[in-house]
Amino acid sequence: MLGPVLLAAARSDSIRRVVSAAPVTRPVVDRFVAGERLDQAMETVRSLTGRGLEVTLDHLGEDVTDRTEALRARDAYLALAEALREAGLGARAEMSVKLSAFGQALPGGDDIAYEGVLRVVEAAAEADTTVTLDMEDHTTVDSTLAILAKLRERFPATGAVLQSYLYRTEDDCRALAGEGSRVRLVKGAYKEPASVALQDKHEVDRAYVRCLRILMAGEGYPMIGSHDPRMVAIARELARRAGRKPDEYEFQMLYGIRTAEQERLAAAGHRMRVYVPYGTDWYGYFMRRLAERPANLAFFLRSLATRG
């Protein structure tokens, strides 16, 4: 029952100050976050790609409150795209973007976010890579998918994330299962009301499988965002039934979680992409990782006890 509490804490400024100030926090955060600077993130990219893995990079930040912050987020991604271009890593590393970091919630936010992310998508194309739009809470879904549709007019490889715990997601999967579409399917990591999202874990799992079936049977490119061994096995079987080749779908897992399984899948010939976050605004991301899996929370609490 701690999951909802931690998800609520992810947006609490007072709890943010306490957690950020705790001496033990930084070493634990380092398990899930690849540093605060771009050069640290690029070092991680080189290490992962050198081991046969692929990468998607997330410059951490969300829920910005003014235009200056939105421009700062845009510029961080432009610097990242340039670093990937200079390193020749565009074929192995893409970028993941949260539109709330680009001003989506500001007055006129749809236009502000679109203008900012368009610059990033253009820079990504110059670096021979692409961008996936992360999905946030349910109030942003329509806006995010509308911006996705506009971006795909010029950059059809732009991807999106769908969350199986939302009631609407099966319909969204059908809408995005067409040729050229790239969809990362996840279970969902935000605290959502029962009016819009499934609350029972088993029901979320079943919804995930239904969505996977739609995506695997479609003409797009499914990206299986899950650490659940059952979902990985089901995805492999659905891909086999659909006659998909290994380069026609991929698995995605978070940096620092199930590392051995990531390398096993890559060694078995699967495309395995690691979601690598970096930056100073790590708090919300970190709290959601604790909320998702009891093992993550236990790891943090053991560290607190040890340091204490």
UniProtKB/TrEMBL annotation:
| Cofactor-binding details, from the entry | Binds 1 FAD per subunit.
> What Gene3D superfamilies is this protein classified in?
3.20.20.220
Catalyzed reactions: L-proline + a quinone = (S)-1-pyrroline-5-carboxylate + a quinol + H(+)
* Top-level taxon of the source organism: Bacteria
Quote the pathway field: Amino-acid degradation; L-proline degradation into L-glutamate; L-glutamate from L-proline: step 1/2
Keyword Flavoprotein listed: yes
Which residues does FAD bind?
135, 163, 187-189, 201, 226-227
Annotated Proline dehydrogenase domain residues: 41-299
Which residues hold substrate?
98, 288-289
Q: What PANTHER family is this protein classified in? A: PROLINE DEHYDROGENASE 1, MITOCHONDRIAL (PTHR13914:SF0), PROLINE OXIDASE (PTHR13914)
Q: What name appears for this protein in its UniProt entry?
A: proline dehydrogenase
